[in-house]
Amino acid sequence: MGTMRDAFFDKLYTLARKDPDVVLVDADMGAPSLDKFRRDCPAQFVNVGIAEQTAISVAAGLAFEGKKAFAYAIAPFITLRCYEQIKVNMGSMKIPVTAVGVGAGFSYDDSGPTHHTTEDIAIMRALPNITIMNLTDNMMAEKCAEIACKSKTPMYVRLDREPLPDIYDKKETFEDGVSQLETGNDICIVATGNMVHKALEVAKILKKEMLNVSVVDLYRLKPVNKKLLLKYLSQSERVVTLEEHLIDGGIGSIVAEVFVDNSVTIPMKRIAIPDKYCYTYGGREAIRRTIDLDTDSVVKTILNFADKKKMK
Description:
This protein is of the alpha/beta class.
């Protein structure tokens, strides 16, 4: 399995070879998929060094002049470190830059809270005019590169660092922003990004406990396709949101807001990172175990929420 990063930039490279207006501004990040971009499209590749704020500003200038500009760095740095630049140059001016961040959630598990990307959804969705895509697999990453090239508005693309199996096929257009991967009328698990894979694993276990489980992938976090999301969620008696993001401001908050705004009273449980920083080391799953985001803990939490017998 490859990574979302390489799938995204391999596709962007193919598009750039055909379109000289596609430009990539890199904050001193390396990858095989970037090496060929740098080698074969030198006039379309700018390395600003370890200066993410500059990357956003340079990309905004290029986009303002008609280029299809992408700014790339580690996810916490291309968002939190650049928040004012994104607000002013992308959001308020509606300049169609695509900020691409790698390392969603605990992807950089060995680097501690400075490199964990656990607040970005909350802060980025607070900004008007910015589309947020949280990617699930390589098929989505490839298509998202095309979507971003055609976008007339600013975008934030959130990539996981971990190689993950493909869920979707090449026929999927990813225009809806949300998709239903499994159907069931007892519990609907709404997940995003890497946790969609966890949700599918959990759903298989819960079905052995006689629970009919639906799994919904919410991959476009702004603007949310509220109508389709509500259609999927209304098919189940209870809803669980699952994410590797802080509990405040993530997809749990998104779904709760959609419910409140539409007077929906389906019982709901949010499963996310507690309101604290994680200093645990030992790998991503070790971190998840300490905050009850591992498979066994998620299964137990949902069983309790569903008033079913706990796992032994």
